[in-house]
Write a structure and sequence with these properties.
By secondary structure, the chain is mostly helical. The protein contains 7 helices and no strands. The longest helix has 22 residues, at about 35-60. The radius of gyration is 16 Å and the shape is globular. The termini are far apart.
Length: about 120
Amino acid sequence: MSNNELSYTVYQQAIVFWYAYERCMMRINQNGQIILPVPAMANSAFSVELFFKAILEENSIPFEKRKGHCLDYLFRSLPNAIKESIVQTANYPEFDKNLSQCSKVFEDFRYLHEDIFKSK
């Protein structure tokens, strides 16, 4: 078996982290377990990051890996037609402002234990 057969694509990894988000938010039946908001936020942000990276990879668009968790950077790197489609589908007022405000949600929630007041 080759390495490609053993590894997930970026898109498949995005799906798996989205499922983890849904489990944490109890959208997948968990037999009475409680909602887990911090892991939910980290998993949802990471899945969005991976979806953006999958689109960039599919379109052969390079991106700076050191800015890899920065959602607004990744979003700005997407092809214009895809960005417009996302904004239109989201139908969310002040999309750009809100994306900028939550651009580092993955890092903020992953390291929440270091500064509980850092994330609002």
